[in-house]
Every structure is written in C-alpha cells, then in structure tokens.
C-alpha cells in the first residue's frame, strides 16, 4: 500500500514535502486536493514545471488566474482553469500568494470518466470554464472524510472524488445542472474565502457586511445561522490554523508569525492561541521538535 506522499508524487510530480510546507493536501491514489494556506506552493512557482496528472485550479479571486480569464462568471459560480498532463507552466510569484484549490486527477481516472461524455481527446492548456459553487460542498466532504478515518473511508473517498470529477467534466463541456445555490450560502462562502485570502489584514464586521450588501446585524445573524459561530470567532480560528502551520515550519519567530497572521500584538496572539488550543505558542512549537 502506498503512503500518502507517494500518492502526492504520482499526481504532482517530483515534489518534496518541503515544497509543500505552506500547502494543505489530501491525496489518495489517483485523486488529490491541494490548497496553499499561508504562502506559495514552491513547486507551483517552479519555471516550466509539469504534472503527470490533469489539474484543475479553482480560483476565489478571478483576477488571479495564471492566464487571463475569458469566460463570463455568474453569481454562484467559480472560475476554473484546466491543465493537461505534461503541459509546462508556472505560477507567478507576487507580493501576496493567491488562495486557490488545485484538484489533481490521474490520467487514467480522468480519461475513463471523460469517455462517458465524449470520444474526443481531453486536451487542456489553461482552458477556462465555470462550475457551480456547490462543488465546494463535495470538496469539504472529501476533506472531512479524508481526515476522519471512519469505516469505509476508502470507498467514500472514491465515491466523493468521482462526483467532483464529473462536476469538472460537465463544467468544461458546459453541461450545467439546474440546481440553484441559495443566495445566503453563496454570500457566506464569499466571506469565508475573503477571510482565508486576507486573514493577515485588518478585517472588521462593517467591511464584511458591506462585501455582501448586508447590515452588520443582518450579516452577523446570517453568518451565525450558516456556520454556528460569530464572524470574528471564525476569523480568529482561521488565523490560529494559519499560525499553527507557520509555527510547525519553524521558519519565523513567534512575533513575526503573530503579525503575519493578522494579530496586532504578540500578547493578543498568545491570548487567542492559548484560548483556542489550551497551549501557548512556545509549547506548541516544542511538541514538534
């Protein structure tokens, strides 16, 4: 049985764990989900790199595509760009890393499912298309199942990954389903993605409410109904999770990490970290020696 990282190599190529130290990944045989969380994927910014698998990049900021977007993106949709195996490309390294989700699908798996729709060859060179934001529900289910280690986990992961693959194929072939995404859910998803992208900056309730054209009280109510927690508690949890990854990497001081993750002081960071994890940042680092 292959270990998890061999599954990563089979999908991504000759990548190292160090290349992915700022990336969360969930990879099984033939299928994987990768998300930069606190910095660039160092393999993604390697010039003219390739992958042995098909890759589909789901963007939360449509202006950040590797190539310019040439499709009309409606409310309730994500922009996706598709890349075929062995096609050279690289992500441009800017001042800020771009948050996205990259889905890698082995050549055999993707082409087998694609044959249900077309006998033509699936060939993508940053082909742009859209998918319903409902795909995020399946991605979240996959990640939750991946981390749960419950009975029949393997069967469930195969099932969920197959749904995601078919959603992507139908998107690239413009075979849209008729299901509607609730406006409420779409707006909260937009805010969650904004928090993940800009967690290091000053974020206020008034700013978040304005992003979805709601009053502050209305926004707080809808957010809590959808996610069962307040917006600021959710944001602090995001910042703590980002900080954990940086603390484990040991690449920066605790003060640098605190400021980089959006806390205005080391004392504020330490207080929030201890409240959320029942341990101090220093104690947390020491558990990973």
Automatic annotation (TrEMBL):
SMART domains: HTH_ARAC (SM00342). One of its GO terms (molecular function) is DNA-binding transcription factor activity. The keyword Manganese does not apply. Residues 189-287 form the HTH araC/xylS-type domain. Keywords: DNA-binding, Transcription, Transcription regulation. The keyword Transcription applies. It comes from the Bacteria. InterPro entries: Homeodomain-like_sf (IPR009057), HTH_AraC (IPR018060), HTH_AraC-typ_CS (IPR018062), Tscrpt_reg_AraC-type_HTH (IPR020449). Gene3D superfamilies: Homeodomain-like. This is Transcriptional regulator, AraC family.
């Amino acid at each position: 049985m292959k270990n998890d990282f061999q599954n990563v190599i089979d999908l991504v190529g000759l990548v190292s764990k160090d290349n992915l130290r700022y990336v969360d990944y969930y990879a099984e045989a033939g299928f994987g989900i990768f998300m930069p969380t606190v910095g660039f994927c160092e393999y993604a910014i390697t010039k003219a790199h390739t992958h042995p698998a098909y890759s589909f990049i789901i963007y939360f900021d449509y202006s950040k595509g590797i190539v310019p977007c040439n499709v009309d993106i409606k409310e309730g949709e994500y922009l996706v760009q598709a890349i075929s195996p062995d096609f050279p490309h690289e992500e441009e390294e800017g001042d800020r890393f771009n948050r996205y989700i990259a889905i890698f699908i082995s050549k055999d798996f993707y082409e087998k499912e694609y044959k249900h729709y077309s006998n033509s060859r699936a060939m993508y060179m940053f082909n742009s298309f859209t998918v319903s934001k409902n795909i995020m529900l399946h991605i979240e289910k996959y990640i939750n199942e991946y981390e749960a280690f419950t009975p029949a986990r393997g069967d469930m992961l195969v099932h969920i990954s197959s749904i995601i693959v078919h959603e992507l194929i139908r998107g690239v072939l413009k075979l849209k389903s008729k299901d509607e995404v609730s406006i409420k859910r779409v707006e909260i998803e937009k805010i969650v993605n904004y928090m993940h992208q800009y967690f290091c900056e000053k974020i206020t309730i008034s700013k978040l409410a304005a992003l979805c054209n709601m009053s502050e009280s209305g926004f707080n109510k809808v957010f809590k109904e959808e996610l069962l927690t307040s917006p600021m508690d959710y944001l602090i949890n995001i910042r703590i999770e980002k900080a954990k990854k940086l603390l484990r990497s040991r690449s920066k001081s605790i003060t640098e990490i605190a400021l980089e993750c959006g806390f205005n002081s080391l004392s504020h960071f330490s207080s929030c970290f201890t409240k959320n994890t029942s341990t101090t940042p220093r104690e947390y680092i020491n558990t990973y020696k």
